[in-house]
Amino acid sequence: MRSLILLIIFLSVPCLAKAEYSRAYLDSYPLETARVGELDIAYRIVGPGTDKPKAVVIMGLGGSNVAWGDALISGLTNGGYEILILDNRDTGGSTRFDDWGQPLLWWQLLKYRFGFSVNAPYTLNDMAADIAGLMGQVDYEEAHIIGASMGGMIAQIVAAQYPDKTRSLISIMSTTNAPHLPPPSAEAEMNLRNLATGDAKEGREQSLRDRGFYPESMRRHLMAIFKTGDRSRETATISAPTLVLHGADDGLVPPEHGQHTAELIRGADFLLIDGMAHNMPEKIIPILVREMTDHMDHVETLPVVSR
Q1: What is the pLDDT of residue 2?
Q2: Which of 16, 232, 273, 283 has the fewest CB atoms in 10 Å of its CB?
Q3: Beta bridge partners of 233
Q4: Sequence-ordered list of residues with C-beta below 8 angstroms from that of 246, at least 6 positions apart, any chain
């Protein structure tokens, strides 16, 4: 169960670690809904401009579009990019799967550990198909695909399965879920176990909701990760220009996870960021914005035939 606790809080910690949180800038852009297959997917287009290059930014476990907060997204739009942010299926204004119920976590984890298929209403592949379908609905022929944590896993799948839609890939503090990669550190495990228990648990859950996270969706998202499994072989087929960013102090998803991702993708750049764990603290956001925009700016200068 302790590994499940870590994974359930997989992307909650980055948001909670920010010294400041604001969503006023994001909320100034309307939340719209598109029909993608049999689902409704909610989204915002931030900093729109006909001639601007496009980027799709994908949130992680249980997170809606506003979980990003203003600082990172406004930094990217100030860099000249039109940004598509969305509510992954099962969060926010997108189609929810509450009627499916909640998985029995200890039993599903036991099956996963022994190589049996887990029960899940969808997989990460389905969530990547949502991205590709939404891009079609909003007339994005291609875009820079960006994702953090579980969102990075989805971004990797988009880049592998929809190369014609992927101008470049940016994978942040994420993983291929390869079984040989190291587990969380003992310190990270203890910190997160403390977060998940105790008298203040209810208050922490409300903090998650206030910042755009949906705890009731986290278990189903977790099952999507388990159901999809190791994606190393597929990740190695990615041909888009790729930047992998990872916190040097990440004890939850150790840096070896990011390094492994970069090693699999031919020509990928890998950057360890000092002072960053499995989080995006306020002082690190300008660094992330700079590295991301530098990467995208470089790709925008490349001739189409070389991509």
Answers
A1: 42
A2: 283
A3: none
A4: 172, 173, 253, 255, 257, 258, 259, 270, 271, 272, 273, 276
**Where do we find the tokens 């049999």?**
38
6 contacts: CB under 8 Å, gap ≥ 6? 184, 188, 189, 192, 193, 252
Based on the number of CB atoms within 10 Å of its own CB, is 24 exposed (0-12), middle (13-18) or buried (19 or more)? exposed
- Find tokens 């920010």 and name the residue: 18
The 10s digit of each residue's pLDDT in 253-301 is 899 999 999 999 999 999 999 999 888 888 999 999 999 999 999 999 9
Positive/negative CA dihedral, 219, 156, 228, 45:
positive
Query: How many CB atoms are located within 10 Å of the residue 302 CB?
Result: 12
Note if the pTM is more than 0.85: yes
Q: Which domains are assigned to the chain? A: 2-296 (3.40.50.1820)
Q: Identify which of 103, 57, 69 has the alpha carbon closest to the alpha carbon of residue 213.
A: 69
- If residue 287 lies in a helix (H) or strand (E), which one and from where to where? helix 285-301
Task: Please write the tens of the pLDDT for every residue from 132-169.
Answer: 999 999 999 999 999 999 999 999 999 999 999 999 99
